[in-house]
Amino acid sequence: MSHLLNNLTVHPDCRHFRGDLPCRPNKTHGYVCEGCPVYAPVSSRLLIIKLGAIGDVIRTTPLLRRLRQERPGCFITWLTHTPAILPQAEVDEILKFDFASALQLQARQFDVVINLDKEKEACALLNTIPAKAKFGYSLRPHDGVAWPQNQLAEHKFLTGLFDQVSQANTMPYVQEIFELCGFDFRGEEYVFDTHEDKGYDWSPLPSTGPRIGLNTGCGDRWTTRLWSDEKWISLITQLQQAGYTPVLLGGEAEDARNRVLHSATGAAYLGTFPLPQFINLMHQMDAIVTQVTMAMHISIALRKPTILMNNIFNPHEFDLYGRGQLVGPNRECVCFYRGTCQLGTSCMEDLPAEKVMQAVQATLSSLPVWR
User: Fold this and answer.
1) How far apart are CA 334 and CA 347, in angstroms?
2) So what's the pLDDT on residue 203?
3) Full DSSP string of 18-72
4) Alpha-carbon distance 215 to 209, whole Å?
5) Prior bond to 53 cis, omega within 30?
6) Residue 203 contacts by C-beta under 8 Å, 6 or more apart in sequence?
7) At what angle do helices 275-283 and 294-301 cross, to 10 degrees?
8) Which residues of the chain have pLDDT under 50?
9) How far apart are CA 75 and CA 78, in angstroms?
10) 3-state secondary structure of 27
11) Residue 52, SS3?
12) How far is CA 121 from CA 49, 110, 117, 163, 180, in A?
């Protein structure tokens, strides 16, 4: 759509158009709107509201593939607490959730708005942003509670309300959010940045055998997932004896534990890193052993063989895309979505290191020859 301003042609519908600054083609090549060889009109405008947590933001990215397929030429805006985790080249506009972003979004019009969070502020935005179609959760004005925007959102809404419904669910999370948006899930992969272009130097990493990344933490909310140091030491020893190269992974919360494990076993540990560098470190691994945590989502997004240790969550929730195995304790967990164990000792202590080791070997044996 062209506009004539002071006798100059302007294309505000172009993907490159900024309004407040010269567009990149103008700065780089001197192009103006009239006759511009890279003019790219936007066919529709979509907004995804997925604020957090980081792992949930990562596992929402398969939607990008389907939206691009269903709406060629669309312009996608994503509102989140953690802009850095999103693939910068795959989302047209990434906004950090704050007052300024909310204010300007409420003054815009979209073809589609998708809100995947039940936080009241996210639901309120779905209510107040003009759009032709809305999906996900809105805010009921008379009592201020999250509510399904339409029937498509009811299943995912109810799994968050009742443990019985959540435990009976057999759909992975990604399939649930596709259903919420009116799509059938076709195995769309995550969209993610490996940060390979950053030039990180990983020469200190051993390369004598397949590198098995061991993410030893699980956050501080669901501590019933934790595995003891003794179990990790046993697994590391078995990996070393079998010719694998275990590499300890984690953030600040896991640093003390990883130093202990490194001292006890000699397993490689390079320390903690900013998130993009940590992602790229994980990308150097041949397989990842992890509990249900952010590193699990990163591993799946990087398409790494993933050995997932799980006890308190519905195992159907996780889709490893045919790469890896899910292993659980030898006794049934009775603490569904609980942060403390009702029996006093977490059933994770009934997950033998040998069982995890067998899953590593079985997973890697089904893959092409290492390197």
Assistant:
1) 9
2) 92
3) -SSS--HHHHHH---STT-TT--B-SEEEEEE----HHHHHTTTHHHHHHHHHST
4) 18
5) yes
6) none
7) 50
8) 334, 344, 369-371
9) 10
10) helix
11) coil
12) 10, 18, 9, 25, 19
Tell the residue number behind the tokens 């560098």, with chain if given: 277
In this structure, are residues 148 and 157 in contact, taking their beta carbons and an 8 Å threshold? Answer: yes
Strands 287-291 and 306-309: parallel
221 within 8 A of 54, measured Cβ to Cβ: no
What are 367's two structure tokens?
């893959």
pLDDT single digits (tens) 221-231: 555 667 889 99
117: left (phi over 0), alpha (psi -120 to 50) or beta: beta
> What's the CA angle centered on 154, arms 148 and 160, to 5 degrees?
90
- CA 67 to CA 295: how far, in whole Å? 26
Residue 290 parent element (H or E): strand 287-291
Q: How high is the pLDDT of residue 167? A: 78
For 119, which DSSP code?
S
Tell me if 259 sits within 8 A of 275, measured CB to CB. Answer: no
- Total residues belonging to the chain: 371
Half-sphere exposure of 248 (CA within 13 A, CB side): 30
Q: Which two three-digit tokens encode residue 216?
A: 């030893």
Phi-psi region of 345 (alpha: psi -120 to 50; beta: other; left: phi over 0): beta
Q: What pLDDT score does 335 carry? A: 52
Q: What is the pLDDT of residue 175?
A: 95
Crossing angle of helices 99-106 and 120-128, rounded to 10° = 30
Distance (Å, whole) CA 338 – CA 40: 50
* DSSP, residue by residue, 156-196: HHHHTT-HHHHHH--S-HHHHHHHHTT-----PPP-----G
